[in-house]
Specification:
flat; mainly alpha; 142 residues; single chain; 2 domains; 0% strand
């Protein structure tokens, strides 16, 4: 097997393992949440160690094995890694510059939104304090 293909397979396998870990974490959160919100026998059933710890592990392993065993998904993973190797990543200086610009834009946006919030808050406060009934009674002479 070519060393580039072997490296691609290793990277794809790590990606499949990561997918399995994420599915396991999601299952753990779902089982813990379901056990916490259900009452009675179902809550006690879901609170057992097998469901809280074993089910997420089994689910994560099942996802990993399913991804690893499917030849078309393995081929897709190899192609993804090959395409990622072709990407020209920005230099450290470019990344630093873009990060600084992003931070400046976030601060300016925050200032602009804060000013809009302040102005709209003062307008709402003025409208609430305005005595609308007295104003209309003067106009219509009621």
């Amino acid at each position: 097997m070519d060393s580039a293909v072997a490296t691609n397979r290793k990277a794809a396998t790590v990606g499949f393992m990561s997918a399995g870990v994420l599915v396991g974490i999601a299952l753990k959160v779902l089982v813990d949440s379901a056990a916490a919100i259900t009452t009675g026998g179902l809550g006690q059933f879901l609170a057992q160690d097998f469901f809280r710890h074993g089910l997420p592990v089994v689910g994560g392993l099942a996802v990993f094995v399913a991804l690893q065993a499917n030849a078309s998904i393995r081929t897709w993973g190899d192609e993804v890694v090959t395409e990622l190797r072709k990407v020209v990543w920005p230099s450290r200086e470019d990344t630093t510059r873009m990060t600084i610009v992003t931070c400046i834009m976030l601060v300016l946006s925050g200032i602009a939104l804060g000013a809009l919030d302040l102005v709209s808050g003062k307008m709402v406060e003025w409208l609430v304090n305005l005595d609308i009934v007295r104003f209309f009674s003067r106009i219509f002479g009621a």
